[in-house]
Amino acid sequence: MNITFKCLECGLSNFIKLMNEFNMPEDIQKRAMKDFLLFLSHLNYSDSPPVISKYYHEEIKKLLNNKDPYYDKKRFYNQKILSEYDNFRSLINKTNNSVRATFMLTLAGNIIDFGPNQNFNIEETLHNALKETLYIDHYNKLINDIYRSSLILYITDNAGEIVFDKMFIEKILELNMVSRDKIVAVTRGGPVINDATIEDAQDVGLTEIVKVIDTGDCAPGIILENTSEEFREYFHTADLIISKGQGNYETLHSTNNKNIYFLLIAKCPLIADILKVPHKSFVCMKKGEGK
């Protein structure tokens, strides 16, 4: 997905919102905005939108002298979902299809997002998760590919949400749909917004059940040329990639010759339009295939 004028508008408004949210003095905001406008003036429009958000979130960290401004919020949502873990497992095991029920909760977890213009109600979203419609429904294809795959790369998105990723991975391991040595989970290479890092994977116990690596980059998406050699090796070797969230969709949907499934809630109106689905709808889409 290439950068559009709407991405510029979104980036500018969100940068201003963040500077106000963190109570930055006006003179600092003005200098920071000049630098941001200069950055935008040299932008390559064939890049993906996370290039913009990576820039201004790195600037926010520098201005605050804080490498992880969302640290407390990430810990809060990890612990909030973990505190209900057994209840979610009990709910899932009472359904007729525990794999699909776990999958829908995993998708619902994608609502936990502190990116641009995100207002969410986690309780309502989770409460309705098992009744939600998949507006693009390639779930059965995904399940078949899980059974057939020799190496699955599972790219996570947000803290809090990563607890549900762990739950889904546990479920497919329990049912012997895939062996433990055939799945590798991925986090961001450093803090950005509320995206999950290795620390979050450790915090929720994901590292105890499967191998977890990071991208080697703190972009809120997968900008392949900036990722680590380790990540690229797994990316090119995997015969199935499960990609959570909008940022990963924006950066990976045009990647050639990869079997990728995009699992997301279409929170961005522009992405909803591109996918031809209602705003905030649930999507499980195999790359290169329509509805």
Summarize the SSE layout with pairings.
Layout: H1 5-21, H2 26-41, H3 50-64, H4 71-83, H5 85-93, H6 98-108, H7 122-128, E1 134-137, H8 139-148, E2 152-155, H9 161-174, E3 183-187, H10 198-204, E4 211-214, H11 229-237, E5 240-244, H12 246-252, E6 260-265, H13 269-275, E7 282-286
Parallel strand pairs: 1-7, 2-3, 2-5, 3-4, 5-6
Antiparallel strand pairs: 6-7
Which features does this protein show?
291 residues; alpha/beta; Rossmann fold; 7-stranded mixed β-sheet; 13 helices; globular
Describe the structure.
The chain folds into two domains: about 5-65; about 70-285, Uncharacterised protein PF01937, DUF89, domain 3 (Rossmann fold, 3-Layer(aba) Sandwich). Helix content is about 50%, strand content about 10%. By secondary structure, it is α/β, with parallel strands linked by helices. The protein has 13 helices and seven strands. The protein is globular and about 60 Å long. A seven-stranded mixed beta sheet has the order 1-7-6-5-2-3-4, with helices on both faces. It has helices at about 5-20, 25-40, 50-65, 70-85, 85-95, 100-110, 120-130, 140-150, 160-175, 200-205, 230-235, 245-250, 270-275; strands spanning about 135, 150-155, 185, 210-215, 240-245, 260-265, 280-285. The mean pLDDT is about 95.
